[in-house]
Amino acid sequence: MESEIAVKRLSALAQEGRLAVFKLLVQAGAEGIAAGEIARRFGMPSNTLSAQLTILSNAGLVASRREGRSIIYTACYDGMGELLFYLTEECCQGRPEICAPFLSPTAACCPPGENDR
Amino acid sequence: MESEIAVKRLSALAQEGRLAVFKLLVQAGAEGIAAGEIARRFGMPSNTLSAQLTILSNAGLVASRREGRSIIYTACYDGMGELLFYLTEECCQGRPEICAPFLSPTAACCPPGENDR
DNA sequence: GAAATATTTCTATATATCTGGAAATATGGA
DNA sequence: TCCATATTTCCAGATATATAGAAATATTTC
User: Domain tally for chain B?
Assistant: First the structure.
């Protein structure tokens, strides 16, 4: 991953509201949660939340799909995994095999099939 | 970890310059690198770098020790590990054992003894 | 097609962050 | 003590981010 993307993802997560939203979506799994429902849970105006979701989405950390009138957001586990890998890949004098094999971008956080976008 | 600390750490890493400095220190290991040497490598004014290091330090991502006239900075692998754990701990419907056992705060990124503060 | 619901886009204001010049502080050596 | 080196602190201007009101867009239902 390029550092530019890593910074974008880190920035997206570096805010109380967005981090809370992201964690909620991470917990929610593949089913996801509608934008309105998220706003309701956090008592946030819908337009404010929409801006937050756009930032997370542009960073590749969440995805969305329309379902009727609602737009359902889900966490992108792959995007998260790539970031975790980037943060640790060159640890220990460039010998990532020591500490980060389990963090490889292909090692999905959730069981296969559960986190397909 | 409290979300406030997570946000602080994410914010600290969410900037090109600081992320590069942090990765450099992660690669450097326990030996660390002097502030001046870091500034030289990145062609950064010393006061600008100092501000960046202060932010990383306040976030608990780097530590420093004085050695003669120089101040040596090192990565805090534990602080990093805690953050990674926080980001993944409630993944998969609150069953972290599925995806994050290897990310536990006690699972050091580097071999034991190499990353003691 | 009109009304209700869900979400986004436009826009502006407030707030926070980034950067580096200049001065201050700390250490080591002559 | 005086000077050179290493780093930090103070400060201010430029830039970026956060928030939300109002209007616009999209979808379903009647």
Answer: 1
